[in-house]
Amino acid sequence: MHQPPRRPRPSTAPRLRAALGRAWRGLAIAGLLTALAPSAASAQALQFRIDEGSTTNAFYQHGPVAAHVLVTSGTRPRLLVAFPAGNSGVAVWFAPTTAPVQWTLQSVRPQASSDDPAMHGVVAELELRGGPLTLDKAALGSIRVLRDVQLGQPIPAQVATEAKVAAQRVSWARRRLDDAPGYRVALEITQGRVVSRAGAITLEPARAGGTVHLRLLASTGETPLTPLASGQLLNAKAASDARMRNALQFLSYREKFLAGSWRFDTYFGRDTLMSTRLLMPVLQPTAVEAGLGAVLARLSPQGEVAHEEDIGEFAILRHLANDGTRSDAPIYDYGMIDGDYMLAPVMAAWLVEDPRGQARARAFLAARNDLQHSSNAQALLRNLLHVAHNSEAFAAAPTFDHLLSLKPGRMTGQWRDSEEGLGRGRYPYDVNVVWMPAALRAIGAFVDSGLLDGVANDAQRQTLRAAAARADAWERQARALFEVRLDAAQADAALRGYAQQLGVPAEPALASLAGAGLAFPALSLDADGRAVPVLHSDVGFGLLFGRPAPDTLARDVAAVMRPFPAGLITDVGMVVANPVFADQAAWGRLGPQAYHGTVVWAWQQAVMLAGLRRQLARDDLSAPVRAQLQQAQARLQQLIKAAGEVRTSELWSWRWEQGRYRIEPFGAQGAHEDESNAAQLWSTVFLADPGTHE
């Protein structure tokens, strides 16, 4: 989903930045979000837990307090609290231990009013077995900084905070870099002792082999977000899955939806768009429009969709590096390209295709978008014209070098946003074969609906109509460039070698090919236009947003649904990439330890399932193709149910054990590139599919 933290890039244009800064604290997207004002302040607190691997995740949300407490046991103990407010948090890391230690999280409650009313936080009661533990480091501030530190980078000097030791208490506290209310974390020992010797601070039991009881107090001074009550979020069609409902509620606020916790407690454009689209049938109308409005509010002057935002103290760090100021004006990242072409089809799904959205479309589009200083319709028009302009080159000369490519100097540009996610390709399959054609068709739908009348002038409407007419040819010609074909001998040799390297059986995969070759679309094209022959799940986007020819549909679904490593299907779910037919160097880069390798992403299964359901609604499919799709649908539903509680996680890996694939929490092993979020926005989308629940 998201690339590892990057070095700061140049800021957006000063004029836009200043305007965003003035508008930020009073944000009210198009006036529509006022309809979402929750009664959560008087409602019961949201509290739930998720255990993954060696980490216990406890969530608390009530009024101005929203916090995610992570307690990690094992040989690399950690305590971390993430706050949606300002995408901020605090963390304490301990020195590695020889033997595993075990935390028990007994309770989480809000902190009582402090000496500073701007501070909001929680208190967690903990028990530690297997100590003593020696403190390694602590970091306070932006989650973006905490993510860097978690990945082994040093704490920036500007935000480094010294520990204070007093009797049975160790604490860290500081103000924000602009002297606004900042961050605090403390460990209070209620059973055991704090020992400070030779510069080391150790938490010890009172007697050898005993336990340590302590109280973790964590708070932030960042401006709280306003939670949405569950009744303002979902309609009666939503599944009753408590874990998914809880995760979605924790991530849903008047101001925006959060991508995932703990690592992405803020806005991400792609996550918002795809989650809103997949959840659309079960979301309340005002919630749909909150998601869409948040994306429109962050468009660039050219109509590009913002991928993510730097807010709070991380924005200050960026401004200090870029212009020497201590401004907290948000800085938006426009480095991704897929969101630009995702916006129009998702907007059309609501405003043109959904009867509820149709009834509200003109009011939504006419509403003023304060951050854009324009109406929602004017913001949308900028995006549509941006798409239309970018469709011209390939339409005029359909060669690979006129396709949509990653931006210069980047290895990422769509949802597989780790540096190896696209197999080192430059031209992504999904952006070119799915998203651009879908965006062009959505442009046509908007023009035909009359929703742009009075917004687009005659010349702009002519430009948009010309762009819409390119959709079919663009899709057909782009798809041909991504075609990969292997004969039976090539496929057999690759499968045997790859299975041996992974230590998994090849026989089921070989049997699924029945001695034949195969064809599938490449994950991407490299800089020279050569196909990167990696099997992938992005064909699901085409099922959800396109209408492939029946033979193409059958071929693409077959490529996905074969047993791994011939396809993407394992006992623990559908993996998102399979480099079996690529060179051996790619095998290591896209393995089960890689963020976008042979791992299962929950939302990608949801996309595939929703796409299959959409294709099954067609009336032009032969009986064999329809049966193939129905079998794929049933198999995916079975796998999703079998994943149990892990299915709301961002992603998970696998291990081969006792004759089958078994779930391995991503990040639970040191070999993994990163760790998964316990609560992930687009992993809650199964609430819209009752067939994935018991």
Describe the structure.
By secondary structure, the protein is of the alpha+beta class. It is about 35% helix and about 20% strand. It folds into three domains: about 15-40 and about 225-475, no CATH class; about 45-220, no CATH class; about 485-520 and about 535-690, no CATH class. It is built from 20 helices and 32 strands. Strands 1-2-3-4-5-8-13-12 form an eight-stranded antiparallel sheet. It has a six-stranded antiparallel sheet with strand order 6-7-14-11-10-9, with no helix packed on it. Strands 20-23-24 form a three-stranded antiparallel sheet. A hairpin with a 4-residue loop joins strand 18 (about 370) and strand 19 (about 375). The longest helix is centred in the middle third of the chain and has 21 residues, at about 430-450. It starts with 13 loop residues before the first helix and ends in a 14-residue tail after the last strand.
What can be said about the biggest beta sheet? 8 strands, antiparallel
Beta fraction: 15-25%
**pLDDT below 50 for ≥5 consecutive residues: which ranges?**
3-42
Mean pLDDT over all positions: 92
Q: In terms of structural class, how would the helical and strand content be classed? A: alpha+beta
- What distance lies between the first and last C-alpha atoms, to the nearest angstrom? 28 Å
The percent of residues in helical segments reads 25-40%
Q: Tell me, what's the shape?
A: globular
Gyration radius (Cα, Å) is: 25 Å
Number of strands: 32
Strand order of the largest sheet: 1-2-3-4-5-8-13-12
The count of domains is 3
Helix count, per DSSP?
A: 20
Organism: Pseudoxanthomonas winnipegensis
Signal peptide: 1-43
Keywords: Signal
Protein name: Lipoprotein
